[in-house]
Design goal:
alpha/beta, D-Maltodextrin-Binding Protein, domain 2, five-stranded mixed sheet, 10 strands, disordered N terminus
């Protein structure tokens, strides 16, 4: 009897390590990604168009039988809770946002941060010194570029220079503050702001772009994974592989076009 049980145990152990068993285990595996809503990169959970980066992540993980759960949280909380291991990763991050996370070795999108003012404002952005003459609205724990991040850190205690907001509707809070004259400028990715205005037509034609921040490493956005997750490096590698395959096949342009049109 003991010998029979031993043989059975060996068979079960072998099956557990087989490709079939691994596939079955993956069927029950779920990776949870969180972020504040930042469409077109990550949009409404459960929507047919959940966001460019969410679609990339879905495709990458599904190839290994892994389900993706994507949820909305304020950005600062998304980073903090993922770092603690409460979630598996974040969407729409630059390396500067969470340098301790596991990042793919290729970015999923290059964003373009624009500086917005009211439509009738004559203020113009030239360089970091331009902000000395206005009040700037930013979102907590967003990384814009090294120079601006340092400016925000040095001046966030002075409401006349920098005002920091947080929450799931942080962009709209800044928009309302700009309309109310409580800040003179705000910074947001041009595609994100365009999508915001599409969904909030009451704000249309009230703003103008006063300039663009220079592109930098911070402009590169990714799907990134918690440093406490033992599979973080593997997940990041899957995202990188999928990104490269989509770019090579031309499918990436099709995904982007569904959100931004073919002339993005």
């Amino acid at each position: 009897m003991k010998k029979s049980y031993l043989i059975l145990a060996l068979i079960l152990t072998a099956l557990a390590g087989s490709p079939l068993a691994s596939a079955n285990q993956n069927e029950d595996k779920t990776v949870r990604l969180v972020a504040d809503e930042w469409c077109p990169y990550n949009c409404t959970p459960g929507d047919e168009a959940p966001g460019i980066l969410v679609e990339i992540a879905q495709r990458a993980l599904e190839k290994e039988g892994i389900k993706l759960q994507y949820d909305i949280l304020p950005w600062a909380r998304a980073i903090d809770e993922s770092r603690q291991g409460k979630h598996d990763g974040i969407v729409g991050a630059s390396i500067a946002d969470a340098p301790d996370f596991a990042f793919p070795d290729i970015h999923q999108f290059m964003m373009k941060n624009a500086v917005y003012t009211l439509k009738d404002s004559q203020w113009q952005y030239k360089d970091i010194s331009s902000f000395k003459t206005t009040s700037l609205g930013v979102i907590r724990d967003y990384s814009y570029n090294d120079e601006l991040d340092a400016y925000v850190k040095d001046n966030e205690s002075d409401q006349n220079k920098v005002q920091v907001v947080s929450g799931e509707d942080a962009l709209e809070i800044n928009v309302k503050k700009l309309l109310a004259g409580r800040i003179g400028t705000l910074i947001e990715d041009e595609n994100v702001f365009r999508m915001f205005l599409r969904d909030k037509p009451e704000y249309k034609d009230k703003f103008r772009i006063a300039g663009y921040l220079p592109e930098s490493e911070t402009s590169k956005i990714h799907v990134a994974f918690s440093p406490t997750n033992k599979n973080a490096a593997h997940y990041a590698e899957l995202i990188a592989q999928e990104t490269k395959e989509l770019q090579k096949s031309g499918e990436m342009d099709k995904i982007i076009a569904r959100y931004l049109g073919s002339t993005h």
